[in-house]
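Apologies for my clumsy wording, but are you able to produce some protein sequence, whichever is easiest, and the tokens describing how it folds?
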Amino acid sequence: MTNSAAYPSWTRKPSFRPAIAGRAIAIVFALAAIVAPSAQAQAFTLLHTFTGPDGSEPAAGLAMDRAGRLYGTTVYGGSSPGLGTVFQLSRKGSGWVLNRIYNFNGNSTNDGGRPFAGLTIGPDGSFYGTTYEGGGGCSLTNRGCGTVYNLKPPASACKSALCPWAETVIYRFVGGSDGAQPGYGNLVFDQAGNIYGTTSSGGVSGGTVFELTPSNGGWTESVLHSFTGGSDGAIPWGGLVLDKSRQPVRDYV
């Protein structure tokens, strides 16, 4: 069952270009010192301006490791075919240096594309995220229904500035009851290591809330809720927050 009949606009690739001024998108880092009862002025420092080959149009927030390095995604740009990147920003002297650590290629079986969501640091210290497209086997579009992926640094030390990380697709959405096209929401983990997220389409008719559970070296998906487009809502573009009873993992590398 697909979404296009009941909600023809849901399966289109979202366009947020008007909300972002051009390809050269600047990441700004806000350093704010708050002293009660009054707040000091905030200072904004430009860390990097994207040019296209290094990525274009970041749509999500950043993750930070214990060393103070920043990690994020871009929806477009990178090397051919320009389906987005994962990048690292590291301090160098008084500035910051960007390293593109992964380039999505949208391969029909092995990779995703268009990562609207940011990165989540898992309990194993590696990064997890979703892509809106790619993965193959999609009943909604020939661009693929999206993926959940894991990204790890190289096993040995890098000997060059360009040092790609290793990506593993841990789940491929097919656009049926399992959901399709994850949006802007980051993944979350519980203390047992299960992953939770949302898809903007698929399911009954309006997206899903899903869980991925480790199983025999892989991952098994369970749909926790399938939105109907009625009183329960539809098209969940955001992510999830686990309440105190689930004790969400707050782990950092």
In short: Residues 121 and 127 are 5 Å apart (CA to CA). The two ends are 41 Å apart (CA to CA). The chain has no helices and 18 strands. The first strand starts at residue 26 and ends at 31.
